[in-house]
Amino acid sequence: MNSIITTDAWSYKLFEQYLNTFFRELKVNLEEHIIPSQDSPLFTLYAERPDTLYFAYTFNASNTIIYGAVQHLSTTGYHRYQRGFFLQNLSENTFDSLTNPRKLVKLITDELNSLFKDKNQNKNLYSDIVNSIENTKFFLENKPSQTASKVVSGFQATEQGMLYGHPFHVTSKANLGFSKEDMKKYSPELGASFQLHYFAIHSSLIQKLVSETEPSHHIENEVLEAAKEHLQENFTNYELMPTHPWQANFLLQHPSLKKHLDSQDVIYLGALGQTVWPTSSVRTVWLPQSNLFLKLSIDVRITSFIRNNPMDEMERAIDASKIIINHKINEQYPDFVILPELEAKTVKIPELESSFGIIYRAGLPPEVLENTRMLGGLVEENENHEIPLLSIIQQAAPNQNLQSKDAKDFITFWWKQYVKVSLIPLIELFANKGISVEAHMQNSLMEFKNSYPHRLILRDMEGISIVPEMIEDDSSISEDSTVWFSQKDAWIFLKYYLVINHIAHLISAIARVTVIEESELWQATRLTLTQENFSAKGQQYRDLLIHSLTLPIKANMLNTLYHSGGNPIWIEVENPIYKYRGAEALCPLQPTQQTNYKTLAENRVMGQLLEALIFENTFKYEFSKGQIKFYISDTVFYTCVAKRHFSFKRIKLNPSSLVRSDITLGTETRPNLKALLTDLKNIIEADPVKWQNFNDELNLTYVKHAQTLSQVPAQPLRTLPYLEQEARITNAHLYHPSFKSRIGFDLKENQKYAPELSEGFTVQWVATHNSLCKLVLSETINLEQLYKQHFSEKDLQAINDQLKKENVDFKDYILTPIHPWQWDKIIELYYQDAISNQLIIPLDIEGPTYLPQQSIRTLSNISDISALSLKLAMNLVNTSTSRVLAPHTVQNAAKMSDWLYNIVEQDHILEKQRKPVILREIGGLSVNQQIALPVQYGALACIWRESIYSYLKEGESATPVTGLMQVDTDQKPLIDEWIQEYGIEFWLEKLLTNAYLPIMHILWCHGLALESHAQNMVLIHKNGLPVKAALKDFHDGIRFSRHLLREPGLLPNLQDAPKEHAKINPNSFLETHSPNELRDFTQDALWFVNLAELAIFLNEHYNFDEIKFWTMLRTIINQHKEAHPEFAERYELFNFTDDTIDIEQLASRRFLPEIRLRVQTTPNPLSLIKEIEYE
User: Fold this and answer.
1) Which DSSP letter does residue 996 get?
2) Is the dihedral of CA 552, 556, 558, 559 positive or negative?
3) Do 241 and 342 lie in a common domain?
4) How many other C-beta atoms lie within 10 A of the C-beta of residue 733?
5) I need a surface site. Which of 408, 509, 536, 832 has the fewest CB within 10 A?
6) What is the DSSP letter of 782?
7) Distances (CA, A) of 987 to 645, 716, 1096
8) Does residue 145 fall inside a structural domain?
9) Is the pLDDT of residue 553 over 90?
10) Quick one: which of 316, 719, 657 has its CA closest to 481?
């Protein structure tokens, strides 16, 4: 097997370059192609490296699978691979090692030809890439040995040290025009230097552009003296034109120059003056004696373009330079320097105008140059995976081991300084001046001070784009200048060149050679952007950047394929600044300004308790003239301001008006919760023990709700991202009286783990022996891909190292997350035997940071917001239910999710744009050791759920549906701006049609009932206008009858609840034979604790008629019926307009004697209205 390893460094680097380019431009997510290690032919080669991920990708045109192994999986595509690759030809049933880059190029180009055969293609793409391969090999074979180690020795070393060039350009070293001898003479990669060749051009043939009002003289005296000696008295009639030596020879052979040479309008002077050396761009040279750059013309095609200087490009560069100089940009922005082009000139010979064109560029004084490096040369790896930048970072902290965990803080600090002198000032420049710089790695130089980033230096004005409307009028620049661009295009260019080409490349390079992760550097980038002060305009563009879901990438390979460089193809990739956040990015919490928060909390509990008890008819009451009255005895009674709502005839109270009257004592008092419960005991039939437990739940709810109200986010909820809204919404269940009991949490734990208060935390990871585990995964994921959702390659290596020290084998265990509270309170106490016998091994790794969702036990990954959420077993009781995870529900989770996902995906009736997103539970893990104690049932389990962020599209946002009924921290409804913007009826019609109707459709069409209460729904919207719903929590939230399924053959093999579980939770089952039970299961969640609460909320805050609300819903249902008469029988079977609905009694079941499913029959709001027209 060792024979398949690519031993030569240059081939290996080209494999990386070409694969990464192909994958990125064809939007191949390499994570989706990760395969189980044992399925890869490379496994035996890297079996001792659990940090290695194996992938397989099929080139369909060749019917060939490439197998590879990934060392570093990069979020922006800068992957690093192990050196072994394997090819499997499916047609010929052959296996071959891949050691020749040409073979890979052939696979890639054949695939491109097949994918895009209907488009006009560059037929020479394969030969162009092979040309680049040959040149790369030539450079490596001829590179001076003393510079091969890539030691940072100075500015020239980085300029001339790029042997591979652009990491995402498949023809990065291609050239057509240079012979091998020419390459030895003129290539920066080989440390070339040479004299310029000069022509004397008659002044009448010179055309010149200058950026300064007083142009400088750029020709050194030595050259001037030589020219004077040659030209004698005619010297003043000529101007000197420097050229590249290769170009001089090219020009001398050009037919169009011959007559000018013969007439001596042009005189060739030969090689003169100082020795110059080429920079990374090949044609631009550094003039060390003049401290200038000179951009020359050479009619050689390098990468994809002939590298001469057409007049329009020179005009653009000079126009940009004029603006830089006239607006004193370098003086206004001291954190960077833009090197303007000082002078451009060429000849008035049309055929030779581009070939003679030159541009003098401002240089740098020696004291600055000494500490300045070209960034592209700092990050190119040598064969030992070393980069010159590492030496600079190391010099900044000579006592730090950059491979140790302790170095992370220092590297993060160093990186934040980099962001402050690069990304931030260039955002400010664009925001305030409309100037977009082409800050890719070869155009960007960094001046270091004490090895810290000090000042960014930018060059090549030909790539600058300026928005005319964003900069003060500059009359010196023509309206037709090619320097002017639209705001949209200029912003795209800046995001690509600065963020993707520059920042992303640096982050990947640093992460590949140090202990830090890419995600941590992106988090630091985001944090620095949000913490630094911006101007008002700068803040606007900062926010645009960090809130954009994607970033643009110029597809260099596809542009080469189509010859479309002048009108480039762009693709979109996930924005890592948006994706990676961390706990520090959370909006801080601050003390509430509502000093009566304890009273508010107690009122909420008392009001909700009485509302539930009244609705469930647990005691007699009188309701008259907006007041409710109920008697405790002949002499004691309570009164409270109340309103009977149309929705389910619910009575809502104003608990602050609750009064206890004692006729005997002649008193009227404001009761507290304790007094109310004491009185209620006298009029409610209840099991004494259960009533006391219920009392405890209510008191805990009061105390913990008060604690959660004591702190609020520093910004309104409506301004926060979804994951923070999901945590910070304080409503909880709007009907259940013990909506926040959280039995098991003390106040310190509530502060740490409650969603409203948590500042984020890591979970306890353990390695659980396979013999204890029951793992069921979705058909869309394997174990390696699951691990990659939580751990980097470095993390996996650290875990393996720990397990080796424990003398156990990584492959015999499954990495298992446990809520830290559950670990402390349950697992560490009740699973000691398993821990002692190394069946459960606590791991040192921290893993991602999580923020709890409203359900407490489900945790959002805030290190990577698009990564999977964790639903973890907790022996915590909340809203009267234990939050363990019953084993049968865990085993069903992935199967049910896949089933529902496929049903919705294949539904051709639901419009695509409003198909609900199914947030799949893609894996379930139960630790099923023999249950010795009741406390162990369901106590160690996890369900993995997809993140809503992996489904959002550009311009879309998400808000929990519970938020639609939430009063924000400014005491306005969270939805208030949306209602004001769109009008309540228009907004509501979109909400009901796009978010709620599809849930009913799933029952009508497919026979699946979903428990879609508000907490299980997420609203996807565009600026508040509803687009669709995302649905979640399916492991115990779906019911069906197999004889009523539209396609029963698709039903997976599911485990029903065992009898022991049903005794504890009689409302937990999958199958029923009753269509009414399916309808009621849907309506109880969707109608009663979702839509009814919304109808009441809109009535209370906007005086919106509830009858109108339900009429709109009925009309929308009828429209669906009219559009789909084929479902007439199903509409009758699952009739949402029946007279009554069975609703679960959530309060009474807590204190009545026997455990059973308790429901009550209530009028259906839709049956109480007549359909009316509305506009």
Assistant:
1) I
2) positive
3) yes
4) 21
5) 536
6) -
7) 22, 21, 16
8) no
9) yes
10) 316
Nearest residue to 725 (alpha-carbon basis) of 710, 711, 715: 715
Write the Ramachandran bin of 235: left for phi over 0, alpha for psi from -120 to 50, otherwise beta. alpha
1013 contacts 1086 by C-beta, under 8 angstroms = yes
280 near 442, Cβ under 8 Å? yes
Q: What is the rounded average pLDDT of the residues 1112-1135?
A: 94
The answer on 56 and 188 residing in a single domain is no
Within 10 Å of residue 206's Cβ, how many Cβ atoms?
16
CA distance 609 to 601: 12
Give yes or no: residues 12 and 100 share one domain: yes
Does 1028 share its domain with 1158? yes
43 and 90 assigned to the same domain: yes
The per-residue pLDDT for range 666-698, each reduced to its tens digit, is 999 999 999 999 999 999 999 999 999 999 999
Closest CA to 887 of 877, 873, 867: 873
Same domain, 111 and 219: no
CA–CA separation, 546 and 721 (whole Å): 12
Q: C-alpha distances in angstroms, 286 versus 175, 313, 373, 441, 601?
A: 21, 20, 14, 18, 72
Question: Would the pLDDT of 1063 be above 60?
Answer: no
Residue-wise pLDDT for 870-912, tens only, equals 999 999 988 767 889 999 999 999 999 999 999 999 999 998 8
In 867-985 the beta strands, taken as DSSP E runs, fall at 869-872, 877-878, 881-882, 917-918, 921-927, 941-945, 957-960
Q: Which domain holds residue 80?
A: 2-139
pTM to 2 decimals?
0.93
Residue 359 Ramachandran class (φ > 0 left, ψ -120 to 50 alpha, else beta): beta
Q: Which amino acid is at 1041?
A: S
In a domain, 592, yes or no: no
Show the tokens assigned to 773.
């585990």
* Residue pointed to by tokens 């940071």: 849
Tokens, residue 125: 């793409």
DSSP element (H, E) containing 270: strand 266-278
Residue 873 and residue 817: Cα distance in Å, rounded?
10
Q: Which amino acid is residue 38, in one-letter code?
A: Q
Domain total of the chain: 3
Decide: 461 and 321 in contact? Cβ < 8 Å: yes
- DSSP assignment string, 822-870: HIIIIIHHH-HHHHHTTSEEE-------EEE-TTSSEEEESSSTTSPEE
Separation CA 778–CA 895 (nearest Å): 7
Mean pLDDT of 745-754: 97
- Sheet of 372-374, strands arranged across: 336-338, 452-458, 444-449, 372-374
Residue 147: how many other CB atoms lie within 10 Å: 16
3-state secondary structure of 238: strand
Is residue 1009 located within the same domain as residue 865?
A: yes
Q: Are residues 67 and 193 in the same domain?
A: no
End-to-end CA distance of the chain: 73
Q: Is 1174 contained in some domain?
A: no
Strand order in the sheet with 175-176: 175-176, 298-302, 305-307
- In Å, what is the CA distance from 184 to each residue of 73, 155, 997? 36, 21, 71
Confidence band, pLDDT 50/70/90 cuts, at residue 1170: low
Residue type, 679: D
Q: Which amino acid is at 454?
A: H
CA–CA gap between residue 355 and residue 346 (Å, rounded): 8
Query: 379: burial class by Cβ within 10 Å (0-12, 13-18, 19+)?
Result: buried
The verdict on residue 577 lying in a domain is no
Any idea which residue has 């060429």 for tokens?
A: 346
Q: Where are the alpha helices (DSSP H) in 1068-1159?
A: 1075-1083, 1092-1102, 1106-1123, 1128-1133
Residue 123 pLDDT level (bands cut at 50, 70, 90):
confident
What confidence category does residue 2 fall into, taking pLDDT thresholds of 50, 70 and 90? Answer: very low
Residue 3 has pLDDT above 60, yes or no: no
Single out the residue of 918, 916, 921 nearest to residue 945, CA to CA. 921
Among candidate residues 320, 339, 363, the one where a domain is terminated? 363
